[in-house]
Each structure stands twice: as C-alpha cells, then as structure tokens.
Amino acid sequence: MHFHIDHISIKGCLYSESLQRQVDFRIVAPATFWKNPEKFPVLLMNDGQDFEKMNLEKTLATTFATEGIKPFIYVGISAGNRLQEYGTACCSDFKGRGARAKNYNQFILKEMIPFLKKEFNASHEKADWVFCGMSLGGLNAFDIAFNNPDYFDKIGVFSGSFWWRKKPYVKGDNEDRSRIVLDMVKNGAYNPHLDFWFQCGSLDEKADRNNNGIIDSIDDTLDLVKELQAKGYSFPGDITYVQIEGGRHDLPTWGRAFPEFLRWAFGQ
C-alpha cells in the first residue's frame, strides 16, 4: 500500500498553574516528525484559536514542502482573557488591562516551553525558537521574547498593539513616551542575536492621533523600530518591516502575510 502524509496535526490542552486554567493548543509538524531523532525548531503563536481563519494548515503544509525551509514545529496557543493575560508583564496599561500578563509570561517560560521540550522533541537551543502574535497577541509576544532573550531568537509581530500606554495620550505630545514598549526597549539590554519582523497594513485603522498623515498602527510600529535602532539593532538587517498596501487589521491579511514571515523565520 502506498500513501503519503503531508503533515501531522495534534490538538491538546495543558493545565497551567500560573494561569489557574486549562490552555488549549495545536501543534502542526512535518510528516517526518515522529521518525526524526533531531530536535525541531519551534514557532510559538499567540491567539492560536485563529488557526483556521488564517488558513494556516494549508500555509504550513506548503511551507513544510518548500525547499530551503528547515523543518520546524508550529505551536498555536489559544487565548484566554486576552485583555488581561496579554499585554506587558512589567505593568498594566492605564486602564488596568494586562493585569495577568505576568502570569501568562510565567506560563510560557516555566510551563509551555518545558512541556514542549519534554514531550514534543522541541529544540533546547534558543537559536531555534520564534515567538509571534497578532495585534495584542503581538505586543505580548514582543514583550515576552524581548525581555527573555535566553529563550528566543526571533520575534514576529503582525499589526502589533504598540499603542499600549501607561497614561492617556496627551494631544501635542510629540515624543509620546507613555507607550510602554518604547521605554521597555530603551531601558532593556541589547541582545545581538535577536531579530525582529514587523507587519502593518495601510488600512489597519483610520486613527491618526498626532495628525501627521500616518495611521497610528504604522506610526507606533515605526517608532518602535527607531527605538530598536537606537539600542543598536540594524534596519534593514536585524529588523524587517513589511507594509501591505490595502492590508487591514484582520485575520485574512495576517494569513496572507504568514508565508513571507515563515520564509524569514525558517529559511535556510
């Protein structure tokens, strides 16, 4: 009997002591996964519940079969209370959102990653780990990976919620240092192994709080890029920025961008 397996897909759950709840996850791996003794690189993704709406099964299967892409495992982690568990671990935003981001941080570092290394042949090398997310999940992925560089090598953010701030925006505040990620990078350490991939859509939103003719999501992302450059990261080089004309703040846009992101993350 002749047959062919494109990929392996597994759905499961893990009880988290840090979050005091069950966390659902999905793992997608190349067909060689069970027979390959090698440790696999890993892509962690926040908001894994959006796997189907982003058409990621087809994208991953195609990527696994693409020459020049090293084999990896995708791990989509379904969200709980996004407004409380996603955010920045250092502090909540000015409305008290993200109060449990520190708990989620601990879940990822102390529970999910050790679980994957033990049960799913995941690599023990930080150079093989990528963390990505969309919107608020992207902000959270950036926060965790940037502040824990011993665990990760690359960070991917799609339409990141980098507006997340300590206090309300004040009209005319051109520096706008209340955006939490800016001082996070400024006060953080420089880790030369880290690489960053940012994506925005020209139609992510309509808001332009400082009236400079650039929508806020693009402004916020490019201001973060400048902060990373000031820290020592090169752009282009360490930092990749992709702007999709006509792209929106939605799952179809992020799904369209995903193949290019995977080539960046795992291309040889």
Draw up the topology in text.
Layout: E1 7-16, E2 21-30, E3 42-46, H1 56-64, E4 73-77, H2 82-85, H3 101-119, E5 129-134, H4 136-147, E6 154-158, H5 180-187, E7 195-203, H6 216-231, E8 239-248, H7 251-266
Parallel strand pairs: 3-4, 3-5, 5-6, 6-7, 7-8
Antiparallel strand pairs: 1-2, 2-4
Helix pairs in contact: 1-7, 5-6
Task: Provide structural commentary.
The protein has an 8-stranded mixed beta sheet, with helices on both faces. The longest helix is centred in the middle third of the chain and has 19 residues, at 101-119. The relative contact order is 0.14. The protein has helices at 56-64, 82-85, 101-119, 136-147, 180-187, 216-231, 251-266; strands at residues 7-16, 21-30, 42-46, 73-77, 129-134, 154-158, 195-203, 239-248. It has one domain (7-266): Rossmann fold, CATH 3.40.50. With 268 residues, the protein is an alpha/beta fold.
